Amino acid sequence: MSYQALYRVWRPRTFEDVVGQSHITRTLQNAIVQEKFSHAYLFSGPRGTGKTSAAKIFAKTINCEHAPVKEPCNECSACRGIQDGSISDVIEIDAASNTSVDDIREIRDKVKYASSSVPYKVYIIDEVHMISINAFNALLKTLEEPPKHVIFILATTEPHKIPLTIISRCQRFDFKPISNQAIVERMKTIVGAENVSVSPEAFETVALAAEGGMRDALSILDQAISYSEDQVGLEDVLAVTGGVSQAILTEIVGAMYEKDVEHALKLLDDLIQRGKDPGRFVYDLIYFMRDLLLFKSAPSLEGLLERARADESFLALAESVSTEWIQDAIMQLNQCQQEIKWTNSPKVFIEISILTITNRYHTQEPSPADSGAIDSEAVTRLSNKMAKLEKELTMLKQQPAATGQAQAVPAEKRRQQPARTSKNGYKIPFERIRDVLGQAEKPALKQVQSQWANFLSKLKTANAPAHATIQDSKPAAASADTLVVAFKYEIHCSLFLDNRETVESVLGSVMDRSLTIIPIPDKDWTELRTEYISKQEKPKDEKEEADPVVEEARKLFGDEFLEIHD
Ligand SMILES: [Zn+2]
Hints:
Distance between the termini: 100 Å
Strand content: 5-15%
CATH topology of the largest domain: Rossmann fold
Helix content: 55-70%
Shape: elongated
Strand order of the largest sheet: 2-3-4-1-5
CATH architecture of the largest domain: 3-Layer(aba) Sandwich
Bound molecules: zinc ion
Oligomer: single chain
Structural class: alpha/beta
Number of helices: 28
C-alpha cells in the first residue's frame, strides 16, 4: 500500500475536525442549518489554517442527502462524490494556475446551468488573489447576479490583494493561525490512531515550527516520523526543521547574560560543528529573544509565544534577564542577520554579536564594539583565537567606563538612585559605603594597600577560585572594621560574595584584624567617589565648616584626588 501523507489522510472531513476556527465553523453551521447561507464567501487567513477544507466541508454539508444538517454525513453518495471529486458540481479551482480571463469567463458561462447531481453548484477558488484584474472583473459580474443554486467560496492568504468590489460582495471570514495547543491536541489524536509514539517536546516543537498552520505541522510530523528510529523525539524534529533546541537557546542567552562569553561561544561552535545553519541559528535566537521579551512584558500572553515553550528554564531565564538587555540583544542580532547575508564566514559575525551583546551588558554604555570598531584583521584573529579577542574587548570596554561615567551623570540625579541592582543580582549597598566613607581614614586604607599583594598571594595558595574573584580588584576605602573594594569587573562582585568567608578570613589573618569587605564595581566606585568629594566641597562657602570637611576628604583620598577651590 502506497504511503499517504498524514495531512492528506487526516484532512478534516467535518466542521468538528477543523481545528482552532470554531468562530467560523459555528457561524457557518448555523447558517447552513437555518438555510440562510450566503452565495459568496471569502475565506482569508494564513496557509494551512483550514480554509479550503472548510470550503469543501461546506459544499458537502449543503449538498448532503440529509440536509439541512450541521455536519456532512460523509456516507451518502453526495458526500462521497464531493469528497472524491467525482461530482462535477463542486469545482475546485487553483487560481495560481488558472488565472486567465478565459478561465473565469468559462466559470461565468457555466454558472447559469443548473447543477446536475446535487442541489448546489459550489465554486471553490483557492489563492483567489492570484487572478488578474480582468479576471476579477469577469468574476464580479457573476458575483453581482448569482443564480440561486450557485455558491462561491474564495480562499486567499492575501486578502489585501483582492479588489474591494469583490470583497464587498462576499461574506468574509478570517481564519486565525491555529494555536500551538490546538495543533498539539490534533497531532496527539492523529498519532494515537496511527500508532506512533511522539515525545511531548517533539509535539511542542513541531507546533512551534508550524507557525499556526496545521498542514505544515502534519507535514513536519510526517518527516520526523520517517526520520526517527522508533519514537519521535525532539532531536528528530530539530533535524527535520533545522531548528535549534530551546534548551540550547536558553543556555546561550543565559551565558551571554551571565557574561560567560566562553560558554556562549562554545555552544555556538558546537552547533555549527554539528552542521546547523548559522543563519537559521540567528533567526531562532531572535525569535527566542522576542518570545522572552513578550513573556516578560505580559506573562499572561503565553499563548502568543512563537518559538518558545514556557518551560521551567524559560521561566527562570525570563525572571533574570532585563527587558532593556533583551531589546538591545535583539537589535544586535538583527544587525547580525543582515550582515551574514553577505559573508562567507557568518560564524565570525555571530561570534562578534555574542561578544557585543555580552560586552554591552557589562557597562550598559555604548562600548567600542558597538560602533563597529572591530576591523577585518581583528575579525580574522577572532575566528582563530576567540579568547584573545574576548580579552581585547573587555579591555576596550573599560575605557568609556573609566572616563565618561562620573562626569556624564549629574550628581543630583545620581543621588536620587541610592542603590542599584546590577544585572547579576548584586545590589550595591551605596548607603553602607557612604557610611564607611564617613568613618574612613587614609591610614587604614594605606595599611590594607601595603598588605594587599601579600594577602592576594596567601589567598591564591589557600583558595584559587576565591582568589580569582578578587585578583582584579583594589582596596578603595577603609574604616576600622570595613573595607570597600573596587572590582574591575561587575560580575566579580557577585562571584566574590560566594567566596566572601574565605577571602575575609585570609585578609583578617594577614591584617591581624577582621575586616568586612563591601565590593563595588570600579565604575560605580569612581562615580560614588566623585559624588562624595563634590558633596564635601559644597559647604565651602561657610568657612568654619569647610575646613574639617575638606580635611575629612583629604584623609580619605589623599591630596591627589582633591582640588580645593576658594
Ligand atoms: Zn451526506
